[in-house]
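Hi support team,

I submitted a single chain yesterday and got back a structure, but I'm not sure I'm reading the token output correctly. Could someone confirm the output below corresponds to the sequence I sent? I've pasted both exactly as they appear in my results page.

Thanks,
R.
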Amino acid sequence: KDDTVKVNRLNDLAVKVIASNPMAAIDILQESLQLSEKIKYPLGSSVAYANRASMLLYEMKLDSAELLLNKGYELVKNETAPAFISQQASIHQKYGAIFQQRQWYDTAIKKYLLAADLYKQAGHEEQAIVGFYNIAVMYGFLDQAEKALFYARQVNRIAEKIKDPEFLSRSYIALGDAFVATQQYDSVFFYAQKGLMDPYVANNAFMSGKFEQL
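Hi R., thanks for writing in. Yes, this is the structure output for that exact sequence:
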């Protein structure tokens, strides 16, 4: 049926095929937008705009991505239901990624932290893991090792909670980098060893190389 469930499924399907068939993803998102407008479902439209913005972000078309996020945000910014708050968080996290690519690190960090607060409010704290990881990386660039360490620990905490092997390994790298900066070399060695013993890392040449470097 042409209802909200169909819109949600179209948006989910687009995300699943973005990597393998981006042109199909664009068509699916366009169908989602048209149906959302027909049945007056602003949340569906917002998600479709944000997903299309993500694709443009990957292509480094930052201005175009930001314009679509603006459209998506206008549709949900005044709503207070958990699903709308979660979508607000998702959009702010994508704004953070745009500002990070522009190297506007202070602004990006504020956006990621705002997204984290909204995700927690909506009951989806685990979704903040991407933002926390990027904050840790940015504080590393800014030579603020203690702050980098704090957010690396947040990534590790959430990754342990949700049992996410990729972000667990990323957290070990972020922790290792922070401990290098603070000259706590026993801790560097601990996380390097922990990473190299991780089965997920064994099949990832980049991560294995990073842990060997640590």
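A quick pointer for reading it: The chain has twelve helices and no strands. Let us know if anything else looks off.

Best,
Support desk
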